[in-house]
Design goal:
Order of helices and strands: HEEHEHEEEEEHEEEEHE
Helix content: 25-40%
Strand content: 25-35%
Strand order of the largest sheet: 4-3-7-9-12-11
Oligomer: single chain
Radius of gyration: 16 Å
Bound molecules: zinc ion
CATH architecture: 3-Layer(aba) Sandwich
Largest sheet: 6 strands, mixed
CATH topology: Rossmann fold
Structural class: alpha/beta
Length: 197
């Protein structure tokens, strides 16, 4: 397992706030976790300048991990994965899964060469319940890929998934708390906003 740590520098956090991609408050996610931050998951990667900086910060955390392939389970993750792969040295390849009509996801067969016996970094924009990345990790592993870590912009999920450390760039600033451990609840802040995802 690769132990990665990183966080976003202040200018990018200010930019995210200014553009209302990141809002501070007291939020309850569908997973049940509480946090002081809400990210606009639809617009988060709409600005290439911001996306590239976040991609660089993630790549930096895995510079020494000798990643061959960056893999993403979602369309949002795929956009970020391109930047992460671009900034890794040497540059990594990118694979992602595509949705099938029945709701399951599929990794195209001609991408399998980029997974079999390769060192893989899993990237998504946000981890919410963690179910998507957990299933994706199983898919990658069963195809013969070696998953070295999981990176995202923010995670409201467990710190480890299938034995891999989850690095959320914004988590050191905005941890995801179980309700019983939430300092905002403890301080008596009742203005909790329910997030639909
Ligand atoms: Zn709370």
């Amino acid at each position: 397992m690769v132990l990665a740590t990183s966080s976003l520098d202040s200018p990018i956090v200010s930019f995210l706030k200014q553009d209302r991609l990141l809002r501070e408050g007291h939020f309850c996610y569908r997973s049940g976790r509480h946090s002081a931050a809400l990210l606009d998951r639809d617009r988060l990667l709409a600005d290439p300048a911001a996306a590239s900086r976040m991609g660089y910060a993630l790549a930096k955390s895995f510079f020494t991990a000798k990643i061959d392939t960056v893999a993403a389970p979602s369309i949002w993750g795929a956009g970020l994965a391109q930047w992460v792969a671009y900034f890794l040295e040497p540059r990594a390849k990118v694979v992602y899964s595509t949705p099938l009509p029945d709701g399951s996801r599929h990794i195209a067969e001609n991408l399998h060469d980029l997974i079999v016996d390769k060192r893989i970094l899993l990237i998504d924009n946000l981890l919410l319940s963690g179910d998507t990345i957990q299933r994706f990790d199983s898919d990658i592993t069963s195809l013969g890929g070696e998953v070295l870590g999981i990176g995202c912009l923010w995670s409201g999920s467990d710190e480890e998934i299938n034995g891999h450390q989850v690095l959320g760039l914004l988590n050191s600033r905005y941890p995801a708390y179980l309700p019983d451990d939430c300092p905002l609840c403890e301080s008596g802040d009742a203005t909790i906003e329910t997030v639909p995802y």
